[in-house]
Design a protein that fits this description.
Blueprint: E1 10-14, H1 18-29, E2 33-37, E3 53-54, H2 65-81, E4 86-87, E5 91-95, H3 103-113, E6 119-120, H4 123-129, E7 139-143, E8 146-148, H5 150-163, E9 167-169, E10 173-180, E11 183-191, E12 194-199, E13 202-205, H6 211-216, E14 224-235, E15 242-245, E16 254-258, E17 261-265, E18 269-271, H7 281-294, E19 304-314, E20 329-333, E21 342-347, H8 353-367
Parallel strand pairs: 1-2, 1-13, 2-9, 5-15, 13-21
Antiparallel strand pairs: 3-8, 4-8, 5-7, 6-7, 10-11, 11-12, 14-17, 14-18, 14-19, 15-16, 16-17, 20-21
Helix pairs in contact: 1-5, 1-8
């Protein structure tokens, strides 16, 4: 039986960050009647408050090798389908005298297990290309990191979602979710004080740090571990490649070129409120002190601005402070709590947003008994 779009289920996606836009794109490519709901502008939350790294996965090779492998695969897919939003700058992992001596070998081995291309680079060559780096580096490794320009990404995603018949409602806050026979079937949204009712056959909650808040509207539970990341944008391009510390991922260990600026960061402090406060003076000093280890003259650059954003990570059963929180994603099917056709997608990273979308839409399709294969990995974005 050949289905037309009007015969397909009506799906609402709550959240217009990278994950929500990725979900909406996947849905329209499979033919679903799709409406994306965002309380602000597309990408105005967590997705716009990041370093914009399209990770090779090397950063997570030692701590989360399988996730690192996912990142590398997705980095290649995103670079292929969104070439106008991606810059293949490459990345360097730098080992300093006070970094763990055994980490570089672990790093090399785990990158190879994850099938991430890696090459050790002569120190002289590195210092010739990266003039601001600490001259006392011990080892340096090149990996295929890239950067993605979030505003361009959201512009392209929105254009494609609409071109395939999807609808996008920005500045619409979801204020209630309705059910019929324990099945999510409608939402009520508010825009400039005006309420409207939107019916549907299913809902995907992709609200990032606000996913718990959305789920509570319908008495569902989503446990997240929110962490706040802060960083500093320095005026000018201080580095040519993304520069990482060659150690377990931690605070203050990456410098990334971004358009006409360079971003240093980031912190990762547990918080309990998704509303992101401004970076504090103490955090700025912490960031500058950390940056000095890789870039001794960093305090000479007085022209900078700060940013902060909230990461919606999966809450672990027990926190081990010696190991960073997982960046893997999770799909929550709320049917286990008695609510049908309501799914939450959480965790993950900007690099893996397409894969996250594929995963949650696959699970939604199974609920409707639809065998529609994902094509988001092979469909170039519209020009």
């Amino acid at each position: 039986m050949i289905r037309t779009q009007k015969d397909m289920p009506k799906i609402l996606v709550i959240g217009g960050g990278a994950t929500g836009c990725g979900v909406a794109r996947d849905l329209v490519l499979r033919g679903y009647q799709t409406t994306l709901i965002e309380s602000g502008n597309l990408g105005s939350g967590t997705s716009s408050r990041s370093h914009g790294m399209l990770q090779s996965g090397a950063r997570y090779a030692v701590t989360e090798t399988s996730f690192a492998a996912e990142c590398y695969k997705e980095r290649n897919i995103i670079s292929s389908i969104f070439p106008k939003a991606v810059k293949l700058i490459g990345g360097l992992f730098i080992s300093l005298p006070n970094d763990p001596e055994d980490y570089p070998e672990k790093f090399l081995n785990c990158c190879q297990i994850a099938k991430i291309p890696i090459e050790e680079i002569p120190i002289k060559e590195v210092l010739e290309s990266e003039k601001e780096l600490n001259k006392n580096i011990l080892r340096a490794f090149h990996v295929p990191d890239a950067i993605i320009h979030p505003p361009k990404l959201f512009e392209l995603l929105a254009k494609e979602i609409r071109s395939y018949g999807g609808k996008i409602l920005t500045n619409h806050e979801v204020i209630s979710i309705k059910t019929n026979n324990n099945t999510a079937n409608a939402i009520v949204v508010a825009n400039n004080g005006i309420k409207s009712h939107i019916e549907c056959d299913g809902i995907i909650n992709a609200a990032g740090p606000w996913s718990s808040k959305v789920a509570k509207l319908i008495n569902q539970n989503v446990e997240l571990q929110l962490t706040r990341g802060c960083g500093i944008f320095f005026s000018g391009q201080l580095v040519n490649k993304a520069i990482n510390r060659c150690r377990i991922p931690n605070n203050n260990d990456i410098m990334c070129p971004s358009e006409k600026e360079s971003l240093w960061g980031t912190t990762s402090n547990v918080v309990y409120d998704p509303e992101s406060p401004k970076t504090t003076p103490d955090e700025i000093e912490e960031l500058l002190s950390g940056a000095e280890e890789l870039f001794p003259n960093i305090r000479n650059y007085k022209n900078f601005r700060t940013w902060s954003g909230i990461r919606p990570l999966i809450k672990p059963k027990k926190i081990n402070k010696s190991i960073p929180l997982s960046r893997a994603h999770r799909v929550i099917d709320h049917e286990a709590e008695g609510l049908k056709n309501f799914l939450t997608i959480c965790g993950g990273a900007l690099t893996t947003h397409r894969l996250m979308a594929e995963d949650v839409v696959d699970k939604l399709s199974n609920k409707f008994g639809l065998d529609i294969k994902c094509t988001s990995h092979v469909t170039p974005l519209l020009k």
